Amino acid sequence: MAIQTVLHPVSDLAKAKQVYAALLGMAPTTDSSYYVGFEADGQQIGLVPGGGPQGMTSPVAYWHVPDIEAKLAEVVAAGATVHESVRDVGGGRLVATFTDPDGNVLGLLQDR
Q: Among the residues of 1-112, which ranges form H helices?
């Protein structure tokens, strides 16, 4: 289990894309009007315009896990609160988010 994906909400996708391309020294591997992604040394860095439909207001780190339902239940039992239930985002990828006791949003991701 490791953080392999970090999504960043951005207000200007074109400007953010230029900054992240300069930072990472590469062009995006995914480039659309609703998501721009960079694959850097096995880590996915994503830019989400306007925080996307989930209304992100700060970056969200996603831990890749083998069983998202079990891990979400485990963190909730430990005191977390479900922020966004498990959902399929396409391509066999499941995501969910939760908040820690201080309100920080954290993510889980499972590829099938």
A: 13-24, 68-77
Distances from the Cα of 29 to the Cα of 4, 20, 40, 75, 84, angstroms: 15, 12, 10, 32, 26
Please give the residue that has the higher pLDDT: either 10 or 1.
10
Looking at residue 96, its amino acid is: A
End-to-end CA distance of the chain, in Å? 15
53-101 tens-digit pLDDT: 888 999 999 999 999 999 999 999 999 999 999 999 999 999 999 999 9
**Distance of alpha carbon 60 from alpha carbon 63, whole angstroms:** 10
DSSP states of 30-58:
EE-SS-EEEEETTEEEEEEETTTTTT--S
